[in-house]
Write a structure and sequence with these properties.
The protein is α/β, with parallel strands linked by helices and 162 residues long. Helix content is 31%, strand content 16%. A hairpin with a 2-residue loop joins strand 2 and strand 3. Helix 3 packs across helix 4. The termini are far apart.
């Protein structure tokens, strides 16, 4: 596994990890569950050149959709939730109920919340676009302040990015 860090202009440091299958993790510096770096991993900033360029463009409000090879590991249920999250349009928010309906399991709202919380590719798989049915911000690995900043970033950029 290869890893590196990426400094954003608005939410702090991100941890990136990938292997030959694709990008495996994007974690926040102050995550609820910090990601452990294994002894056999090596740091390589050049390996993430494309990912960093796209993240930079996203944070500069120049990119709405990422084009990266993703390889998140999770259960089939989690994978189904993460695929739906990737379909949420840039600059919009939706609810856990909507996601549950999209996977054809409307009673799985709590399970959807759990799968969303286990998303290993924050920002690229946009779990920050999911809020509570009452319109409130709910749990987010980077904290609710960062979730709000990401939502605001997209809303302000919606008319500019392509």
């Amino acid at each position: 596994m290869v890893y590196d860090y990426f400094e954003t202009n608005c939410i702090g440091l991100l941890f990136l990890a990938a292997d030959e299958h694709g990008l495996r993790h994007i974690e926040f510096e102050k995550s609820r569950t910090p990601f452990p770096i294994e002894r056999d991993w090596h740091r390589d900033s050049g390996y993430f050149k494309n990912a960093k360029a796209q993240l930079k463009a996203y944070f500069n409000r120049e990119l709405k959709k990422f084009d990266l090879t993703l390889a998140p590991e999770g259960t089939p249920f989690q994978q189904s939730v993460w695929k739906v999250l990737q379909r949420i349009p840039y600059g919009t928010v939706t609810t856990y109920q909507w996601v549950a309906n999209q996977i054809r399991n409307p009673k799985a709202v709590r399970a959807v919340g759990g799968a969303t919380g286990k998303n290993p590719l924050a920002i690229v798989i946009p779990c920050h676009r999911v809020i509570g049915s009452n319109g409130s911000l709910t749990g987010f690995g980077g904290g609710l302040g960062i979730k709000q900043r990401l939502i605001d970033l997209e809303k302000k950029a919606d008319h500019k990015a392509s």
